[in-house]
Amino acid sequence: MPIALLQKTGVAIALSLTLLATAATQGHSQNATTTMVSITSVSGYAGHAFVYAQVSDPTFAFPAPTGTGHQSPYFSEWISQPFQSSSCPWIWAVYVFDRATSLQINVPPASWPSPNFGTTTIVCASPTVSPVDQPPQADAAARLDLDLQVAVSPPSPTAGSTSVISAVLNSALTQDLNLYLSMAIEDWSVTSWTVDFGDGQSRMLNGPIGASIQVSHIYQSAGRYEPRVVALISGHAQAAVYDRYGTVRLIRRPFSVAVGNSASTTTRRRPSRAYLPPQAVVAVVPFLGPATADGSSTPFRRIEVFRGALTTLTVHLVMVREGLLLVDGIPRGFGHSRLVSWRYDGARSDAPPESGTIPGRVYAAGEPMRMQWNSPDPIASGQLQDYPVPVTLYVETLFADGHLSSYVIPASFSVSVDFAAQSG
């Protein structure tokens, strides 16, 4: 990969890991040139970052893999082996092969002391743990590529609703440096996630958390936003250089790298909602004596009662038009209304004080009204007039979107007194 491309991706941070490469000794090297190897991390904020081996010689520096100009005639396989030693319980067994013939060049002689792992090149990697926490790698695992994808769901949310910003980190190891070099990336993880939602708010998640996150957020205003996610990654790289005779130097160093990416989302404005109140009137069903609750009787807006008789009335809500939901001025469904309670707003009737409905008191829906008229219908301009009965209705309306509203509706019904029914 050209170094210019890596520089465009981010700022390279050398980890101060320099290894003596190709010319391990004057007697074993093909030439006297000394090649230095360092582990380099490159942070990137367009979704891509690297950890790779950088090779330098007296003339220039370049990232591995190096191409045919510096191709090694040898390749190696590194296999971790348990070793019965308190100071070195794990070792690297390094097998070096001729690239052209695939023949091993560091086979031990028959007189090699036990234990014999089939190679003259054995390196103690660590006193406590396995050399690398990965399966054996043929040749070199030379570059760790980190790709971060960020998405917003739903892609066009409504302002005030919940959006989910997700980030998924993928990784890949590129093998075969074609150098006198082997490298492994081990035990790396995301140490923290930073999410900038693009609206002035941000959030940090400390790790290790894993290779993916999902964070909920609410954009309060309509507009275009670009949430950005940055993952900070740290781990350890092991690199080794060897000459054609298998002489090896192994060093382990930490590294850290950041990778970020962004997504775009357009938040739609909240639709305007209007709730038109219901239009309703009151109707009653009269009874002489206790009211029946069979619901079969039809309520009336005007009734006739007997003069001087205590009359029981059941109060009913009669809809003229249900409540209506408007979204951006467009009807989106009617509501469903119910009578919660009622109040009689007229003067005290002629019913006995202990029996009649009390003006101004709120009664629950289903409680009956008890009224009595001892006088005949009044006369005005030579015409009999009904008695008006003013009532306040307390109504709840459940709209199609789940919104619940309460309304106070003034209403009335009329009563005509049957004078012929007068007794005494």
Describe the structure.
There is one protein chain. Helices cover 2% and strands 54% of the residues. It is mainly beta. The chain folds into two domains: 265 residues, no CATH class; 149 residues, no CATH class. A hairpin with a 7-residue loop joins strand 5 and strand 6. The longest helix has 7 residues. It starts with a helix and ends in a 6-residue tail after the last strand.
SSE topology:
Blueprint lengths: L2 H7 L2 E9 L15 E7 L5 E9 L4 E3 L10 E9 L7 E9 L22 E6 L10 E2 L2 E13 L8 E14 L5 E16 L5 E5 L5 E7 L4 E3 L2 E15 L5 E15 L2 E3 L5 E4 L2 E10 L13 E5 L4 E11 L2 E4 L2 E5 L1 E9 L17 E3 L4 E3 L7 E2 L2 E2 L2 E12 L5 E15 L6
Parallel strand pairs: 20-30
Antiparallel strand pairs: 1-2, 2-3, 3-4, 3-9, 5-6, 5-8, 6-7, 9-10, 10-13, 11-12, 11-15, 14-17, 15-16, 18-22, 19-21, 21-26, 22-23, 24-25, 24-29, 27-28, 29-30
Number of domains: 2
| Total beta-strand segments | 30
Main sheet makeup: 7 strands, antiparallel
**Compute the gyration radius: what is it?**
44 Å
Query: Total number of helical segments?
Result: 1
Shape: rod-shaped
The residue ranges in which pLDDT falls below 50 over 5 or more consecutive positions are: 1-35, 59-72, 126-141, 175-180
What structural class do helix, strand and pairing data support? mainly beta
Rounded mean pLDDT is: 76
| Straight-line distance between termini | 116 Å
Strand content: over 45%
Residue share in helix: under 10%
Summarize the structure.
By secondary structure, the protein is mainly beta.
Record keyword descriptors for this entry.
424 residues, mainly beta, 2 domains, seven-stranded antiparallel sheet, five-stranded mixed sheet, 30 strands, 2% helix, disordered N terminus
